Amino acid sequence: MFNYDVEVSVVSDVTSDVFPPLIKIREITNIKEKRKWMEYFTKGYSGSTIGLYPAMFSEICRYFVAEVDGKDAGFIRITNYTETWKNYYDGQVWNASDAYVKQPYRSKLVLRKLLEFVIANCNVVMARLETERLYNKQYYYRTLGFTYAWTVGEDEQISIAVIEKLKEAAIRKNIDYRNRK
Length: 181
Prior knowledge:
The chain is an alpha+beta fold and 181 residues long. It has helices at 31-44, 82-85, 110-121, 131-136, 138-143, 164-180, and strands spanning 3-7, 22-28, 61-68, 71-80, 94-101, 124-130, 146-152, 158-163. The protein has 6 helices and 8 strands; from the N terminus they run ββαββαβαβααββα.
């Protein structure tokens, strides 16, 4: 379990109430707390309906919560896809699966710090998100290192974005997948 304090730089011409001076990130393992955060996510999710299933609370998923001024501000769930990628990539593959930031903390770097943390400390090399969100926030995701993406599913509503070091493996995996169809 991790507990980290992540320093956030304050831009000199911006007041300190816009950017919190300190975001603390902690891993949660309590099933009740995990369920609470997933319920926040499902209620606030604007995409298609998603359900909660047992694997979301198993050992293949890890949850991290960001605190601002001692209050829970948001969370991110990451999922281990190493087994799925073992024929294509020699390393751990974790996916940023779900994230939610409470309304008062949005636009205050909470999600960015959660993503930066899991990328730097938890082998997160891919993110699953709505295609429209990825398209509208391309620059944001590129600055986090996500340089290659593709759509999945019949309706192409979901995209998978990967960081550069997973790009070649992703291309090979997609070619193999298309050849099997």
